[in-house]
Design brief:
Helix content: 55-70%
Largest sheet: 3 strands, mixed
Oligomer: single chain
Strand content: under 5%
Number of domains: 2
Number of helices: 9
Distance between the termini: 36 Å
Order of helices and strands: EHEEHHHHHHHH
Structural class: mainly alpha
Length: 215
């Protein structure tokens, strides 16, 4: 990205690759409108125009969204090629394994050719548990209508609630007993993921099943 660069490790905190002339003369045009990234955040100049600020936000989102795909693909490769060592690699990289498992679960369900650049990783995650043809149909609609992830999720919920059963067999009801503190943690996780509790439980069980079955 033209306006986002990394700091080097010197005390001056000049961005890596910054032209020497601009570093020596920060008052020149463009020198005061650069956004510098660090390991812990951004340094945003007070003179940044709205257009540059808006474009920077779009670019940051693209980087963050693509990183979910990249990390998912990375873990899928490790799981398939280094079955006895990939968790060691995850720990060495300092990454959260549960988060990576979620990324990998979505990445494994969508090969590169089925991923939509116009839609976020979150859009794909919403339909990863569906049969491929059905998931693709939903993604087509989201892309055509420009649905945000929240609107996409809402339409999926409405469809599930309004769709009659395909045959005489109806959904089974499952009752389990669990300690109250466990249930509270599950509800908190569902809330953080902005999901209904029942929906979160079903999605989590689907992901665990796919992992155990190697799907």
């Amino acid at each position: 990205m033209q306006h986002i660069a990394k700091y080097d490790r010197s005390d001056r905190r000049l961005p890596v690759g910054r032209p020497a002339a601009e570093a020596a003369h920060p008052g020149r045009p463009g020198g005061q409108e650069r956004i510098f990234s660090t390991r812990v955040g951004l340094k945003i100049p007070t003179s940044l125009t709205y257009d540059r600020w808006e474009k920077a936000g779009q670019r940051i989102f693209q980087i963050a969204d693509s990183s979910a795909w990249c990390l998912g693909d990375w873990l899928v490769y490790g799981q398939d090629r280094y079955t006895d060592r990939y968790q060691t690699g995850v720990q060495a990289a300092g990454l959260d394994y549960q988060t990576l498992r979620n990324y990998a679960w979505v990445a494994r369900h969508f090969e590169l050719g089925r991923r939509r650049e116009a839609l976020s990783f979150g859009h794909h995650a919403e339909v990863a548990s569906l049969p491929p043809a059905e998931a693709d149909t939903w993604l087509d609609q989201a892309e055509q209508h420009g649905w945000s992830r929240n609107e996409f999720r809402l339409r999926l919920r409405e469809s599930r609630r309004g769709t009659p059963p395909a045959g005489p067999a109806r959904a089974s009801q499952l009752r389990i007993s669990a300690p109250c503190d466990h249930v509270q943690r599950w509800r908190e996780a569902a809330s953080r993921g902005d999901r209904d509790f029942e929906e979160w439980v079903l999605l989590t069980l689907d992901r665990a099943t796919a992992h155990e079955l190697g799907q």
